Amino acid sequence: MVGSAPAGSEPALEVAIAHALVRRVSRAEVGSVVRLHRPSAPTVAFGRSDVRRPGFAGAARAARGHGFEPVVRAPGGHAVAYTPESLVIDLARPHQRPYEEMLARFVDFGELMAGVLRQLGVDARVGEVPGEYCRGEYSVNARGVAKLVGTAQRVVRDAWLLSAVVQVADATDVREVLRDVYGCLELPFAAGSVGSVRDEVDDIGLDRVEGTVREAFAAAMGNERPSGELQPIDSETLSLARELLPDHVAGDRLR
Predict the structure, then answer these.
(1) Residues 153-181: pLDDT tens digits?
(2) Taking the domain 11-253, which CATH number applies?
(3) pTM over 0.85
């Protein structure tokens, strides 16, 4: 398992790393990768379909107005917001026919994450809640009311990427920025659909959530316990991420 970008990295580089990882997996330069990433700053990650909407420039300005940096992410879907109190998960794996089993990947990941949250004391369920951001049938919610985990995928030749955001805290900030961002994009959104793990379990911290996620992934990969610390991003992946950076900088699309 690998961890966050080097200290001080900009949000656009953080999302470019996920893109770089799936590219390297597709070229067989690296094998399957699990990345657990703590964002360096509040971020709104737009989907590529958002960029084509007439309200995108206003949505990016709205994000900045709330102190969130707008970026363009590698997977599909619509805008998501996260803060340093969120956990971002990227899974990149080789597959000769990556469009196959997309639904199964959503199902399996949703059940895995619902199980993680139940271990933490959340009444976690798999399914879309009314008015949720980046709506998805396999989101993970609390009590059938508040979205806690969203997922999206991207496929490239011979590989796939599944990315997810776990909202651990800061639900109010996420709710407020998404209300304005989705308003500019003219997409449906219900502010009450945004939740966080801390809203469900008092005083829970990011360390505990990350630790439980690591244990779940280690078990899914056939290991009894996660091995050691998260590994740093290797230099080859960072170099490719910097090459891909223009694809993920929202500001370049506003000129």
Answers:
(1) 999 999 999 999 999 999 999 999 999 99
(2) 3.30.930.10
(3) yes
